[in-house]
Sequence to fold (705 residues):
Amino acid sequence: MSATHRATVTHAKTWTTPSALPFARQAARADLIEQSHLRCAALGLSRVERADYEPLMRSDLSVARERNQRLFTHAAPVMEMLFEQIVNTESMIVLTDAQGTILHSVGDDEFLERAGKVALSPGVSWAEHSKGTNAIGTALFEEAPTLVHGGEHFMHANSFLTCSAAPIFDPRGNMLGVLDVTGDQRSYHQHTMGLVRMSARMIENHWLSDDFGHRLRLHFHSRVEFIGTLLEGIIVVGADGKILGANRSALDQLDMSSAALRMQSLASLFGTTASAVFDHFRAPLPVPMCLSLPNGRQFHVSARFNGPARPLMAALGADEPQAQAGPTGESVRSDASRPANPAVVEAMPAGRLSGLHYLKTGDTHIEAMVQKVQRVLNRDIPLLILGETGTGKELLARAVHQDSNRARQAFVAVNCASIPESLIEAELFGYEDGAFTGARRKGASGRIVQANGGTLFLDEIGDMPLALQARLLRVLQERCVTPLGSQKSIAVDIAVIGATHRNLREMIEAGAFREDLYYRLNGLVVRLPALRERSDLGVVARRILLAECPQATPQISAAVMALFGRYAWPGNIRQLANVLRTAAVMAAGEPQITEQHLSDDFLEDMQRLRACVPAAAPRIAPQAVDTTPEPVAPTVMDPPAQPLITPPVIEAARDGASARTLGEAEIEMIRDALAAAHGNISEASKRLGISRNTIYRKLRWGKGG
Fold:
């Protein structure tokens, strides 16, 4: 750094020492330093050990920097701004990765030279196990801002330093690295730690905006004038109202860990929904919302949103609402008549269309199913939803919740198959402080308590461990839950909806599922058909495209719909949505989705089916599907129909010998198409309805490559 640059800013040298801190903070720091020293001694480190002068090899440092390039991109401008605040103070700024390896540093030239003598330079690890007690390594261990001053450093060689470090986290609570300001211990300034903490939060906010630029973000604070400053909390909200991430200020204000906050939804946290937020901020000059936590604490909230609102399952609902100007000029979507996404149903205001209404397709079987469900609403009768993965079981559960008297309370979904068996008990029932190793301080409320007053949706209930089934049964019978490590029971009032793709009766016979729990959950049973069994494939496909391309929705060609009609859809609606999302991107600006816009994997499956199964009449008329918006919402059930292609047929088509013969036939067909197109790959791909990459790959395979 040049002398001219170092002289650009004058920094007031009103120095003090950490001893000037309040007594309580001094005691906490003393305990933190003592614990760190004990760890270092246990590691066998010596206080008189010479500094490690062996940084990473230049190539290894380059790899580390490349791996953390995104962190540096967000941190570099903040580091330069911070340097302007500490210039000419015998200091330097350090950025490390999550392992404590120094990636970059800036500072006064003379101090950089002094720091180099104790290996405080790029490529060197300053984790505790390498350098003993120091702000970087100890902040990594404590996962909290840390000050280490003078002789508090474990190694005597570092006692001339004073270091203030703050960890940097991503919106999901994962450690990204550490930002540190290190200087001569005689130049300690009480405001340095504040500067470092605010700078780290600035980096985190940049990262959050980069991660979730096209998601709804709520900026909040208990004092309205702090919205828009580094003191504001920011939470990111998914299309279904679930909390996806947050910045450190949000966690501090809400007094929650990142993991605990991501268990929440807008309904459980603030008693509102994404649709209500959109409605509020669609006004030309909206004022901040006033929202309250369950404990009554109030916050002023502003909303920001960039980009198109195209939630995955909104496709299965009505047409997208129009964009409105948000509070900061960003686009915010809202609709006075219904939620922007039918999955966001936790607290539907009165007067909105029924959630179950959105499931109707005009089919008599669907009408009968909806009438059955409506008869058990608000009668404390459990609902059990059966069906394959991806058929829309949670969507139906949310619709039931929306139509019930509990709609203004939380809808809490628990996927029993996705939570590790060792954690599912704590997730469901909660735990007290110190209940088990690794539990966060202050404990955590379980999902059952979070659903109090609302609906608990137990997805894949058949995957719940047998030992926990007894505890769940007791909760359902007694309407009380006892957190792990606690002697106190908490009364709960919940409606329970279960769902599974398994055959619970067979599991009962095998001793894998409790019969008494089955009958406790089995109030009304409805079965969602697989997509291959439904007769409304065209309607479902149309609504998916409406969500993906609300402004210029392409039609689906008759040839593509014929393919869809012959396919078995093992992934059901979720798989169809993925196929159409890719096709919509490939067909951007074109009026129709054709075979050339479909993914290679899907086309290869269809090629196998063409070779192994005689052509059958499609379930829909072979014309292009009109995607004009219509006010009919998601379809999750239809009258069962015989599948044209069954899974065993698909598996037979994937048999090794058949695949080899089919592969040879495909290669011959490709070569014939190329000859007819005079070697033009693009023309051949259009004639065959496959991509250029598929042609290249097939020809390489045919040559044994």
Notes: The CA atoms of residues 161 and 272 lie 50 Å apart. The first helix runs from residue 3 to 6. Residues 3-208 form a domain with the Beta-Lactamase fold (CATH 3.30.450.40).
